[in-house]
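Thought: the user wants the 3D structure for the chain below. I'll pass the sequence to the structure tool as-is, report back what it returns, then summarize two notable features.
Action: structure_tool
Action Input:
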Amino acid sequence: MKYRVGGGLKIDITPITLKEACRFVDEHHRHHKAPQGGLFAIGLASEYRIIGVAIVGRPVARMLDNGYTAEVTRLCVLADHPNACSMLYSACWRAARAMGYHRLITYILKSEPGTSLYASNFRLVNECCGGGTWDRSNRPRVDTHPTEQKKLFEIV
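Observation:
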């Protein structure tokens, strides 16, 4: 699909491999590394240059992994591309539905507004979930990610 954004700039949904998407996330994501794996990835290109990716996998929370739920585990877009996140979230839902999934979920930091999720018809399910450190006295760890609580969004 092709979209015109702002002053006529064309943005295209494009196929991308998981390996390429993970490399993009490792290079550009604000606070996370790429996930260990995934079901599929979707790219967003402008003038044949990747400007964003979304990686969809099985739910990280094992209680949500019912075989019909998928999770957007990473979404990463370069700055100054309005509506790009919404385009990727919508494309992820179309692809997941086509593969037989009934529900798509994602988490964002509690401090993030979720504007692109609302624009993509996701709804807020839980405003305070997750967060905290994984560091334990018997298993010390260094947190390299934000430890604030998360918001859970879904589309069904």
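Final Answer: Structure generated. The beta strands are 2-5, 9-15, 40-46, 49-57, 69-77, 103-109, 123-129, 150-155. The chain has one domain: 2-155.
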